Every structure is written in C-alpha cells, then in structure tokens.
C-alpha cells in the first residue's frame, strides 16, 4: 500500500491521469455532438446543430412520395429516362432487314429496327403528321412502316417515302418530315442502347462499357448470341422497388438452380471447364434498370429489365440468349422453366411492395445514383427557372408546313380535323 500511494503521488502519474481525463472528455464530447444530428427521410430539409451553434442545411434523402408520387415519376422521366443510356435489346432479336421491336419507356413510345444496311436504329414511335403510332405490334418485320391514319409511310432509315395528298402542296418537303431518330449505341457484344436526349450526342459511359466487358468476359460472350425466348410482363409496383439489389441475388440463385437442373453439362463440357479453370457464372447491374445473368452449367445468358409504365406499374421484360447454335435437347423445357421463375419472382416483388412503407428506402448504389441524378436535374431546373425536357423534339421543317397542313384540312384529308392526335408534328415531352 505504501508503495502504491507513493507511485500515485509522483509527478509523472499525475500527468498521465490528466491526459487520460482529457482524452476521455474529448471522446465523449465528440460522440455527443454527433448524436445531435437529425436526418429526415422526406419532406423539407433537415438541420444539423453542432457545438458551435452553426446551422448546416441538408437536402432530403429522397423526395416525398418516392414510391407512389406522380410528381416524382415525372421528374424521373425528365432527369433519368430522357437523358440516360438505356439498354433495350440485343442484335440477335432482329433477324433480318425490317425486323423491329416496340417499347414504351416511362411513357416514351419508341421502336428499334434493323435497316437494309444491317444497322440498328431507334425512332420515336409516332407519325410526324398527327403523332399516331407507327408500329402497333410489339415485334414484327416490315421494310416500310406506315401510319394507318393518313397513310404516311417511312423506310427503315426513318425517311418519309409516302405522304398521300401532300405531294405537290406548296411548302411541304418530305425530307424535313422523317421520323425523329434517337441516339443509339451498339456494343461489340451486340447490346443495343438508346439515349432520348434530343441535344448533342452524350458519350456512352466508360463505366457501363467496362461493366459490360467484364460480364462478357466472365460469361464468354462473343460477338454473337442467339435469341431463344422472351416476354414482357406487367407488375403493380414501382420500378425502383423492383430494381432494389435485395432481389438481385434472389433472382440469380433461383435462375441458376433452374438452369442447372434443365441443362446439365456433358462430360466433355465438364472436362473442358476443368482444363480452362473458368466459370461462366456472372451477373451485372446496368443503371438504371437492367440486370444481366449468365450461368455456371448452361450456355445461356439472360437480360432482365424493369421498365416504368407509371409511378405504380412496371413492365418486366426478360430475354434469354444462347451462346452457341445449339443448347441441347432440353431447350424448350428450360425456356418454360425460366418463364415460370420470372413470373414467380414478379409475384414476390408485388407482394413485398404491397407492404412497403412510404419512408422505407434500400441503401443500394442504384438508389444513390438515382438520387444524384434527380437532384442534379432539379438544380438545373431551378437555375433555368422552368422544367427542362431533354427528350422534347420540335420540327425543323419549313414554316410553310402549316400552310400545307391547312390545305390538307381544306380538302378533307381523310378527316384529319376530327380525329387528330397531338395536333402537331412535334413531340412536346
């Protein structure tokens, strides 16, 4: 005891004790100041008060009505679907010149078609006369696409080739009334992307190209794939909920199990895989709405897309591709099993979404990227003083077109006045 008392009273022990007290006080004070921060999930900005009474404003993490608001959906149309590169299809889905596929992306009707030059092009799916639909089926083949309203017809390059009762009308120029073309990008692996921004071509993101290259390398995708089956389903949930990464491993695991059961590899395939020491199992998420999957025991890959139709309805499109000319005797059984699996997954998402709370939010990188893009676009609109509509198209034709249009009405051009669509040959999006 005497030894301990003597030690406690030495100058060095006093200094150590004081330093210890100061350190513990600093740690406690830092923890308390951090605990004062409060964050709101939605509605207005939250404020953070630190120990020096400084006030820092923080933007809300998500807009109010994240899962159900029409206002949020319209913002997503402007900020994301009007100016992001969107994966739509693979070149294998266009077997010959004139093959087309129609889409409705967040209210933007568009279609892809293969030209006689084998190039895949994208167009707004509206006639330049009255904005009526050009392609009425989801898929088809035709080298001349016509609007049934007034018979305007276009070739696979979007050029207007026929405009009944407009020929010879002063001020009308066919070359100025072709379909509105959309920026496209086809990767080396045949994946077709579009960008609806009507301005200057936005470069294809290096990060997306790298993600696709990694997936293609792991899945052993060459320059060609064979389309096997596909379907578009509709679900009653918000597209962002479907894209939540919590479903990513669920989808992959369930599909992997089905493929393994229906497409057991041969002894030769197993031996080659052992020699190469290469697994073909891979998955990739492509912003903002796509997943790609390939499988360990089958020469297949699948694209899965969540396509927003409204704030509460989502179209789910899946397409299945083979990596070789043949996939075995179980191909029909496999495609049927995949179809049932996708339907089951869709039902699961609908069930989960029916119980989601307004303030709930997943912490995926996809959600962070969506938020960044929405907030960035809102800042641009605030600076502009009005909404910015990147996909909006206006005709570049002669001002005399309106005179030609009036002449067409005067001679009763198939009753155009009584059944008109938009009433304009532009697209006010």
UniProtKB/TrEMBL annotation:
Cross-referenced Pfam families: Rieske (PF00355)
Occurrences of domain Rieske (ranges): 86-183
Coiled coil: none
GO-annotated molecular function: 2 iron, 2 sulfur cluster binding; metal ion binding; oxidoreductase activity
Top-level taxon in the UniProt lineage: Eukaryota
UniProt entry tagged with the keyword Methyltransferase: no
Residue ranges of the TM segments: 6-25
Keywords carried by this UniProt record: 2Fe-2S, Iron, Iron-sulfur, Membrane, Metal-binding, Oxidoreductase, Transmembrane, Transmembrane helix
PANTHER family listed in its UniProt record: CHOLINE MONOOXYGENASE, CHLOROPLASTIC (PTHR43756), CLUSTER-BINDING PROTEIN, PUTATIVE (AFU_ORTHOLOGUE AFUA_6G03920)-RELATED (PTHR43756:SF6)
Name used for this protein in its record: Rieske domain-containing protein
Organism: Penicillium brasilianum
Record lineage: Eukaryota, Fungi, Dikarya, Ascomycota, Pezizomycotina
